[in-house]
Amino acid sequence: MAIYKRILLKLSGESLMGGKQYGIDEIRLQEYAAQIKEAAEIGVQIGIVIGGGNIFRGLSGAGKGFDRVRGDQMGMLATVINSLALSSALINEGVKAKVLTAIRMEPIGEFYNKWRAIELLESGHVVILSCGTGNPYFTTDSGSALRGIEIEADVMLKGTRVDGVYTADPEKDPTARKFTEISYDEIYKRGLKVMDLTATTLCRENHLPIVVFDMDTPGNLKKVLAGEPIGTLVR
């Protein structure tokens, strides 16, 4: 049994690279689709926001001479590529999936609005919400916080390659300690990079809890949905 009825799952674009240096690793994509299928089969309504950093990041592009607005728009298009890939993998698994875009680009995806997204969720579709907020200067973390609030999700599940929130970067500091639970205020005080400040503030002000967990280990999504304490709860 799942402890959440409706979730917003935030996936990292970089994680889709798997063992590659760029683009989409087909094995990782299939692993994600299989985990999402497991969640859908136990009746969880699933909205997904996926980043585009495996293809293009607007902020890094700006540092290389791109206009920031154009760079962010390129990043939005990268999220659409990832969203289409994930929807295709889900459909191959027998899961109903629909891509909604924050910028009009029919027939690639249907234009997003809250009520359409909820209608699809309640009809058993996995809904993939692409293009972030549709605006420059906002990350896909902010997009996932906004969409999670809009679709009235019970929780945001932030799937990363790290198994929770630590006192420091565990990939750089072997003495870093993992939190089982932490408050939004503690994240502010410690300057922890769970999500960007805009996203964290949106979640805090709208009482949307976050669970940070390792999505790259098959089976972990189902464990989080069952309430197993394998990640870090932020509330």
Can you characterise this structure?
The chain is 37% helix and 19% strand. It is of the alpha/beta class and 235 residues long. The chain has a single domain, classed as Acetylglutamate kinase-like (Carbamate kinase). Strands 4-3-5-2-1-6-10-11-9 form a 9-stranded mixed β-sheet, with helices on both faces. A two-stranded antiparallel ribbon has the order 7-8. Helix 1 (26-41) links the parallel strand 1 and strand 2.
CATH top level label:
Alpha Beta
- Most strands sheet: 9 strands, mixed
CATH domain topology: Carbamate kinase
How many helices? The count is 8
Structural class: alpha/beta
Strand content: 15-25%
> Strand arrangement, largest sheet?
4-3-5-2-1-6-10-11-9
Overall number of strands: 11
Radius of gyration of CA atoms, rounded to a whole number? 17 Å
Distance N to C terminus: 22 Å
Number of domains: 1
On the 0 to 100 scale, the average pLDDT is 93
Element-by-element helix/strand order: EHEHHEEHEHEEEEHHEHE
Residues in helix, %: 25-40%
Poorly predicted tracts of residues? none
CATH superfamily placement: Acetylglutamate kinase-like
Q: Outline, from the CA principal axes?
A: globular
